[in-house]
Amino acid sequence: MFVTFGIFKRSFRDVLRKMPLNVEIKATIRDYDQFRSLAENVSGQKGQIIVQEDVFFHAPNGRLKLRILQERPSQLISYSRSDQSGPKLSTFYITEIPKPEDLKKTLETSLGIKGVVKKERLLFLVGQTRIHLDRVENLGCFMELEVVLRENQTTEEGSEIANDLMKKLNVEEKDLITCAYMDLLSKTNNK
């Protein structure tokens, strides 16, 4: 059985399933090349380059962004995450979007655009964790860890994984940031 929500067609099972959970951290990076070298050593990979444009919309609950990707399907991402330093829980739902420009216009008309974040991301995988090394337009260089929790894992277990990787990657607590790139851009633009 399928249920249709606007332009999205989903099986009943997909609609009813629990939202995925991540434990995340984000930090500023002082030396891009040094961090890249550490991430390559920890992951055993050179990293995959992903060019992203995230269009954020005004949303009544949580955050809503349309991630426009080059050479791969775009994504509509709804997520909720507290603004705190250190590992934090993030709930999210991702839907692939075949025609992002059509959806962008629809959401812009009904919700309004909050802002746009453009970045070049270098992705490394370590077990269940995604390490992102980001160059964000008009902001600088940052890193993110996203520990994708398994169904039977607790937030504490995800935090332990994140803290362990922070040590291996030489991420210091003083470099942690609490908010999204969109929020940082808004603060920068309001100065």
Automatic annotation (TrEMBL):
InterPro entries: Adenylyl_cyclase_CyaB, CYTH-like_dom_sf, CYTH_domain
CDD domains cross-referenced by the UniProt entry: CYTH-like_AC_IV-like (cd07890)
PANTHER family, per database record: CYTH DOMAIN-CONTAINING PROTEIN, SI:CH211-156B7.4
Organism per entry: Paramuricea clavata (Red gorgonian)
Stated name of the protein: Uncharacterized protein
The organism's taxonomic lineage, starting at the top: Eukaryota, Metazoa, Cnidaria, Anthozoa, Octocorallia
PROSITE patterns linked: CYTH
Membrane-spanning ranges: none
Molecular function terms, GO-annotated: pyrophosphatase activity
